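Lecture 7 notes: from sequence to structure.
We start with the chain below.
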Amino acid sequence: MTDTVSFGYEDIAPDEKTERVGAVFSSVATKYDIMNDAMSGGMHRLWKDRFVRRVKPQPGEAVLDMAGGTGDIAFRMAARGAEVTVADINHDMLDVGIERAMERGIAEDSGSLTWSCQNAEELNYPRAAFDAYTIVFGIRNVTHIDKALAEAYRVLRHGGRFYCMEFSTTQWPGFKQVYDLYSHKVMPQMGKLIAQDEESYRYLAESIRRFPPMPEFEKMIRRAGFVNTRVEPIFGGAVAIHSGWKI
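Predicted structure tokens for the same chain:
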């Protein structure tokens, strides 16, 4: 049987997905945050604030923010005193984040933020290195989600917590049809107008549809070893916060 993974609605070889996802994020990096505002009407900022409140980063804690290139989550956690390592497989996304940090007067060697190019499936960190692991709107783009979850578990200390926010399937009656129309018709056109990249945003919309439903993804988190798992739907389930603990 051929080993394939999803790239939007396509099924392709794993190596090809890694390469093509990289090309998508290199293409959209400089417009990524602007597009997030445009596509969500600014609601992504409220979702991220809520996410960080759930994580409860503490002063001095070591937090790994995976797929956090542009720094949106990391800035929020560092403001609460956490020592955040921002990891991303894409150099272009990290460059945007580092530039944004400099604009905020946060030096690369400040201690509150560290930037590192990392593959979520093969992290270059020892076991039990972090108190918390976060990943926001990134895990659906990982080639092998189970490997990324296993790595999250490995690098967390005992008592460490895993938090993931990802798009999901809306549960509001009648909203699915509206959401599907928006995702498949409006999002790519917004990408074309704002980021000059229709196809990348077509992929991002399709990748949401191919991501496992909330109960299935929760099972994947448990299979990785996490306990006390929880799912918190937001916006009718269009977005969900997943969490678990390493005990």
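Points to note: The beta strands are 5-7, 10-12, 62-66, 83-88, 113-117, 130-136, 156-167, 227-234, 239-245. Residues 7 and 17 are 6 Å apart (CA to CA).
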